[in-house]
Amino acid sequence: MYCEKNKLEFDPNQFNFQPTKTNTRFEEKSECHNETSSDSVDEASFVNDIFQNEIYMTEIPKTFKETQISPDKEKWDKAMSEEIKLMQNRKVWDLVEPKSNMKVLDCRWVYNIKYDEKNNVKKYKSRLVAQGFKQRPGVDFTDVFAPLVNFDIIKFLFVLLVCILGWNHCQIDVKGAYLYGNRDIPIYMQQPEGFVVKGCEHYVCRLQKSIYGLHQSGRQFNIELNEILFGLGFHQNELCNGLYTKSNCILLVYVDDIVVFSKSQSDLEDSILNIKIKLEITELGPVGYLV
C-alpha cells in the first residue's frame, strides 16, 4: 500500500512473502521474544525440517541404531563424523574421569535431510544434542534469555531498505553457532553413541562450550556474538532485539542466521568478510523469499 500511495515501483515477484513448500532459514514462528529462548526456537526449526521430510516421504532415523541399519548408513555416518570433527575443532569438551558427585547428562543424535529450492536432497545432517531437560534450574543453568529480531522488523526493513532505497542484501548462516558460546556453569555429559573413545569408555565429557540442547546455549552464543560484532564496530539497537548498525550497514540476527543490508556492494562484501574472519559462516546469497 505504501508503494502505491507514493507511486513507487515494486516488483512483487522480487520478494515472495507467501508460504512455500521449500525450507527457508527465516521462518515465521509463533514468537514471544521476551519469554522464549533462541535455543527452543532453533530446536523448533530443526523439528520443523524433520516434519517437512515426513511430508516428502523420506525415512529419517530416530536413533543411532536406526542409522546403522539404514540404506543410507554411509551418508549418516559421514554426517555424524562431520559433526564430531566440528566439535573437536571448536574444543567443545575434554574427557575426564567421573566422580560420584557429578551430574552427568545424557546426549542423543538428531537426524535431518536438507533440501534445495527444487526439493532435491541437498545434505544429510546429524546434530548431537544434550538432554538439557535433565538440567536443574539454579544449579545447571540460570539465565537463558537470548534476544531475537522480530519477524515483522525483517519484512519492514526489506520493504524500506531494499524495495524503496535499493540497498544490497545477503543472508549468512553461522555454522555450529551455539558451539561458539562458552560454558558458564560446569556441565558433564556422556560420550556420544558411536564415538566413544577407546580406552576411555568410562570417561565423561566436560563441556567447554554450550552444546545444543542446553537451556543456556542460545544466550551464551548471543553473548559471544555481541562481543564479536562490537569488536567489528557494530552497535546494538536498544529498541529492537537482534538489530545492529554500523555506518551504512545493518545486521539482523535470528538465532544462527544473519541478514546483512548495505548501501553499497563493496560495504556489503567488506562486512561479510570481517564476520567471516571471526566466525565460520556460509554465504547463502540474496534473500529471495521470506515466509
Automatic annotation (TrEMBL):
The gene is RE1_19. Coiled coil: none annotated. One of its GO terms (biological process) is DNA biosynthetic process. It comes from Araneus ventricosus. It holds the Pfam family RVT_2. Residues 91-287 form the Reverse transcriptase Ty1/copia-type domain. This is Retrovirus-related Pol polyprotein from transposon RE1. InterPro entries: DNA/RNA_pol_sf, RVT_2.
